[in-house]
Specification:
Structural class: alpha/beta
Helix content: 40-55%
Radius of gyration: 17 Å
Order of helices and strands: HEEHHHHHEEHEHEHEHE
InterPro entries: HAD-like_hydrolase_sf, HAD-like_sf, HAD_sf
Largest sheet: 6 strands, parallel
Number of domains: 2
Shape: globular
GO biological process, one term: DNA repair
Organism: Natronorubrum daqingense
Number of helices: 10
Pfam family, one: Hydrolase
Keywords: Kinase, Transferase
CATH architecture of the largest domain: 3-Layer(aba) Sandwich
Strand order of the largest sheet: 5-4-1-6-7-8
CATH topology of the largest domain: Rossmann fold
CATH class of the largest domain: Alpha Beta
Length: about 210
């Protein structure tokens, strides 16, 4: 790893889904089929992709635009997700291995719920990659709010202004959370601008973490 970028930051924060890991499409499609049956509404491949990957930013806002109650959707969604099946269908991006080379505190800030996140981390054997972890909830707040980011920074002991950090993620919410918390932002574009329908700007914009080092 090139020392320059690593030495630039006292700590790193990372998103999980779409940033370090992803899930096989067949799993996503099956979940949306079952949720659609529960809600009495079919989801197209494009709609499932938008919600799963957060392509338009706030998933709740997108659901509301489609006339779907977010609470009903998420209740049905989480009822249909089996943590062990989700873990088995999850794979690690090859370029995510850079995390193991970081010689500074590393934190995880994810919207993935704890009952799903923990089995995934165990299955991929990446639990020890992170010195602190937070799975966002209504109580902690959701990215792009800075509160969950600040909470992990406090857990890492880097919450004061004397530390310089960076947050890496695959969505606009990650970039917003970084900037709102006073951090630099890395946007890793896993899906492509055409599929996303817009260009997410960050302090660094890459298609792979390999480009950074």
């Amino acid at each position: 790893m090139a020392a320059s970028l690593e030495d630039e930051y006292d700590f790193w924060l990372l998103d999980l889904d779409g940033t370090l890991i992803d899930v096989e499409w067949s799993y996503t499609r099956e979940i949306f089929d079952r949720v659609g049956t529960k809600l009495g509404r079919e989801f197209t491949d494009r709609e499932a992709d938008i919600l799963w990957s957060g392509l338009t930013g706030s998933r709740n806002r997108q659901l509301e635009e489609w006339g779907i109650d977010p609470t009903l959707f998420w209740d049905a969604f989480h009822e249909e997700e089996d943590p062990l099946v989700r873990a088995e269908q999850t794979y690690l991006h090859e370029d995510a291995a850079f995390v193991t080379d970081l010689d500074v505190p590393v934190g995880l800030v994810t919207h993935c719920q704890k009952f799903l996140c923990e089995p995934v981390l165990d299955h991929l054997d990446i639990h020890d990659w992170f010195d602190a972890r937070l799975c966002c909830t209504e109580q902690t707040g959701w990215k792009p709010d800075p509160e969950p980011v600040q909470s992990v920074m406090d857990d890492l002991g880097v919450g004061d202004n004397g530390h310089v950090g960076v947050l890496a993620g695959d969505g606009a919410n990650d970039v917003g959370a970084a900037w709102n918390a006073g951090l630099d932002a890395i946007h890793v574009e896993r899906v492509g601008h055409d599929r996303r329908g817009l260009c997410v700007r960050g302090d660094y914009r890459v298609d792979s973490f390999d480009e950074l080092f």
